[in-house]
Design brief:
Elements: H1 5-21, H2 25-28, H3 40-59, H4 61-74, H5 92-117, H6 122-146, H7 154-168, H8 171-187, H9 203-208, H10 210-222, H11 232-268
Helix pairs in contact: 1-11, 5-6, 5-11, 6-7, 6-11, 7-8, 7-11, 10-11
Length: about 270
């Protein structure tokens, strides 16, 4: 399939975004130095738990319902669409529109969740990090499905986890992971055969999540600064930090899958 003029313009926009987002790639590829290190067995256990949780999540009503709602929305543009793979028949700008609607909803959800955590309630604070990670992982996988990549296939599930990983590690490590993601996506020859690494969680990623824990301590310190009994400052900080987290994660996911689809279409038409 050849790229349309509009799709070429979208591709150029993504390249400009990529250049701007991953500024100074030489510096970004420098290895990070974790403040703490888990041993290999512990990391493998965390990886296994992540895969099991993801499989459980895909077996729930949410996944089926999300896929059905996505297909229903896509049929507003093409009534013949029946499967996630059929989504790729739609123009990329239409897929980006559908994806943006989802991203907007998730960012509002993160904003509200962060605001609740900002009240300093111990239950909300305790649930903040796990729920933030889970909700954004689900959103990344929804974006993958929007561009026609079914995450029920093992390799696409694993790739979506790596997209999420890339979006949630420190900025200086993201460029190298982004390039690795692109190479792994090009290696996918069959949805049930994966040639890349199946490792996800590492010490660098775990260290970066300390920022979310630090946020909880900041909120606890600021929650006593109230006005008319309401901790407006800590609520605003919690809401902004969660919104910023989701914005970054979902922007990276959307650009990655849009670029991947455009390059696959271009390759089929011997373009670019």
């Amino acid at each position: 399939m050849s790229l349309t003029k509009k799709e070429r313009a979208i591709y150029e926009d993504i390249l400009r975004w990529e250049e701007d987002f991953f500024q100074n790639p030489e510096r970004q590829q420098q290895p990070s130095k974790p403040l703490f290190r888990f041993d290999g067995e512990s990391l493998e256990l965390l990886d296994n738990l992540l895969f099991l949780f993801n499989l459980f999540m895909q077996s729930t009503k949410w996944h089926t319902s999300a896929a059905d709602k996505l297909l229903d929305e896509a049929r507003n543009f093409d009534e013949s669409i029946q499967t996630i793979g059929d989504m790729q028949r739609l123009p990329v700008h239409t897929l980006m529109y559908i994806s943006k609607r989802r991203i907007d909803k998730e960012q509002i959800r993160s904003l509200l969740q962060g605001g609740l955590s900002g009240t300093g309630n111990l239950l909300f604070l305790g649930l903040d990090l796990p729920s933030l990670l889970v909700l954004n992982l689900r959103a990344v996988q929804f974006i993958a499905m929007t561009y026609g990549y079914s995450v029920i296939h093992p390799v696409e599930m694993l790739l979506s986890l790596k997209v999420f990983y890339t979006a949630t590690i420190s900025k200086k490590d993201q460029y190298a992971m982004w390039k690795n993601l692109e190479e792994e996506a090009k290696m996918l020859n069959h949805p049930f055969f994966y040639e890349g690494s199946d490792k996800i969680i590492d010490n660098d990623w775990l260290q970066n999540q300390l920022k979310q824990i630090a946020k909880a301590f900041l909120i606890m310190m600021l929650r006593k600064k109230t006005r008319q009994g309401i901790p407006f400052l800590s609520i605003a900080i919690g809401a902004w930090l969660n919104y910023h987290f989701s914005h970054k994660v979902l922007e990276i996911a959307d650009k990655f899958y849009a670029k991947r689809l455009l390059e696959e279409r271009a390759a089929a038409g011997d373009e670019l």
